[in-house]
From TrEMBL:
InterPro entries: Kre9/Knh1 (IPR045328), Kre9/Knh1-like_N (IPR018466), Kre9/Knh1_C (IPR008659). It comes from Friedmanniomyces endolithicus. This is Cell wall synthesis protein kre9. The lineage of its organism: Eukaryota, Fungi, Dikarya, Ascomycota, Pezizomycotina. GO terms for biological process: (1->6)-beta-D-glucan biosynthetic process; cell wall biogenesis; fungal-type cell wall organization. Keywords: Signal. Residues 26-128 form the Yeast cell wall synthesis Kre9/Knh1-like N-terminal domain. One of its GO terms (cellular component) is extracellular region. The gene is KRE9_2. Residues 1-20 form the signal peptide. Residues 177-255 form the Yeast cell wall synthesis Kre9/Knh1 C-terminal domain.
Amino acid sequence: MRFRLSAVSLLAALTPYALADVLVTSPAAGAQLPFGNIQVTWKDSGVAPALSALTTYTIQLVVGGQEASSQRPLVTCANNALFSAGSTATCVVGQGAAASTANGFFLQFTSVASEGGTVINYSSRFTVTGMNGVTDAAEVAGVTALNGATTGPTTVNSVNNGAAAGGGGAAAVGGSQFTVPYGLQTGLTKYAPMQPVPPTKITVNQFTPLNPTSAFTIATTWMPRPSVATTLTAAQTFSVSSMENTAAAASYPTGDMAKFLARWKD
């Protein structure tokens, strides 16, 4: 019995790493880096799927909490880059991209598997110093809720159209699949983000795309049959409430105003 309990404890300890494949080694957890050129490095985590089973990757710098509703991609550091080209990249961060929130930044590493599907790994959290942009209330609240923790969001493994490595089951629809750039998705089902609700006032003076651009080819001949069966769009994240107006209706005009309005009855 003692041995069985130890085995269970060991399994529980290893569970968070069961779906890892890309391990970001820099920036380090809790690092404080000035805006500008931030160097990104990674390695094989030693757990399937291996880097050799991945083809291309996209890296985005993100600010916010652990949930997609409190996150905002700031910069696309690499887009459809080849793993075979090396294990380093440079993230160019502008000073006005956001505010310098302590441990409010992390990297979203989206990899395309050779067998189909994607896997999203996240770096540890770090701080980009010297920033003078704006971070909205939801993003700040998401970071504050972590109480200084430097762990990034949970890995999302959607290799082979949602099948986790080793037959662990499909990833839940409505999760981080909607944050994967559309052009990097494979399989019969694709996921599209919902356009966010415009704010009540303009707080930035520089336009930043929410998602990286996708490559396209202009058709000059008949195209093959589409391979995508369904595209799912994320649900809106805002809510609307209403109430009955209990104020009494205004009385009908009298006097000269009543005579004036009467002129238009015919």
